[in-house]
Amino acid sequence: MSKNELTMRPCIVCNNIGFNRLWLGKSLADASDFRDVVNPSAKFFYELETCKFCGHNSIQTDNPCLLPTRKHDFIKYGEPTEHYPKISNILGNLNLDFKDVSIHTFSYKDVQLANFLANSLSISDINLNDHAGCSDDWLPTDLADNSFVDPQPLRGFFAEINNSKKKNKIVLVTRFFDHVASPELLQKVTDVASPTVHLVFDLNDYERLSARGTLEFIWNERRNFFHKNHLEFILGRKNQRFSMFPYESSEVSPTLSGVISHQLPKNDDVLKLTKPSHVGTDFCAQLTKLRNLWRGKLAKDHKLAIIGASHKGISLAQFVLDSQTLYALHDDKEVLKDKVAPVLPPLGFHSVSGFDFRAYTHIAITTTLLIAAKIIPKIRASGYTGEILDFDCKRLD
Ligand SMILES: [Zn+2]
User: Fold this and answer.
1) Residue ranges per structural domain of the chain
2) What is the pLDDT of residues 301-324, one digit of tens each?
3) At 349, which helix (H) or strand (E)?
4) What is the mean pLDDT of residues 278-305?
5) Which residue blocks in 10-98 are alpha helix, DSSP H?
6) How much distance in Å is there from the Cα of 344 to the middle of ligand 1?
7) CATH fold of 299-389, please?
8) How far, in Å, from the CA of 52 to the mean position of ligand 1?
């Protein structure tokens, strides 16, 4: 897809065309594209878009991948689990005969929830497969006539559901909505919901995340930063019935989760809407502000260490820092050892433990706060006196 065609693509939420745009980069690799050797990774242009009509924030790219999940299967992300009892409750109230129900997972991220539901609802037919796989499995197979051909993993997923002999099926699609990059694929997966197939989803609640004044969740495999009312509007427009709830605790960052099922009552309040009920934060403006903060912080001869080479650290380098910034990446994760990072830091990719950080003027820690709290005293004890900052350029100590 060319840049011009992208510009003409309507908003995935409200179908209008008209966006605020912010250029992210013209030659960026997937944020999870760590490699064993220096073979050039596939690079694409990325831009941030905010819909002028409904406020939906998304990342647009010429990367043809239909579902960018992760580049390699050694990369794993933990997801929240605390809201599982609420999901079990919604499903329990559907009054299905749970002896005649099968559970199906879309990705490895669904396995824990599948086991929880099997246990809490006494379901014995449980199918734990990772159809989502890696991003490269979702490259389109036919581009010639622009028609949507079901990618192989989607065919396998549908076949598994169709082959189940059980009367009702519960299908889990954790983190599908924020990653899906094609309106057709979004339609196909939400259409799985039928009188006997019930979909369970969860995603980050980007409305509440951005209200905290952070952009640390932005990375180029995440394409849709849905708000609750955006997702409600999409599902309502597709005539789906659903029960959606926001979840947050001291352990869990803001999450949206719920069930799509024909057995649920009609969401009349949403069906009446002609567009999502309110416009949210403009991420383009928020990111511009963040770029300026970092630009003001780092002068020409300054050197920055980024600790944490997961998506947050990579996105800081790709989307936020000035291209002239001298920075290094640091991470101790065993799976990343000797790997080539998706960005090539001018000051290299190094370990954290045992490293002398005194050559840097600034450090950005992009790990979880829990890990940061363990790292900071060690760095200070080693005599480091520079500023230690987070993704959003705020001081950590
Ligand atoms: Zn829109």
Assistant:
1) 3-61, 84-271, 299-389
2) 999 999 999 999 999 999 999 999
3) strand 349-350
4) 93
5) 84-92
6) 35
7) Rossmann fold (3.40.50)
8) 7
Enter the tokens of residue 144: 């010639």
SS3 160: helix
Place of tokens 């997702």: 231
Identify which of 329, 324, 317 has the alpha carbon closest to the alpha carbon of residue 299. Answer: 324
Q: How many angstroms does the Cα of residue 106 sit away from the middle of ligand 1?
A: 27
pTM tops 0.85, yes or no: yes
Q: Which residues of 328-347 are buried (b: 16+ CB within 10 A; e: fewer)?
A: bbbbbbeebeebbbbbebeb
In this structure, which topology does domain 3-61 adopt according to CATH?
N-terminal domain of TfIIb (2.20.25)
Is 84-271 a CATH 3.40.50.150 domain?
Answer: yes
pLDDT band of residue 170 (cuts 50, 70, 90) is very high
Q: What is the mean predicted confidence (pLDDT) over 92-118?
A: 96
Whole-number Å distance, alpha carbon 14 to ligand 1 midpoint, is 4
Judge if 3-61 and 84-271 fold alike in CATH terms: no
Ligand 1 ion: residues within 5 Å (CB): 11, 13-14, 51, 53-54, 56
Sheet-wide strand order for 57-61: 19-28, 44-51, 57-61, 224-225
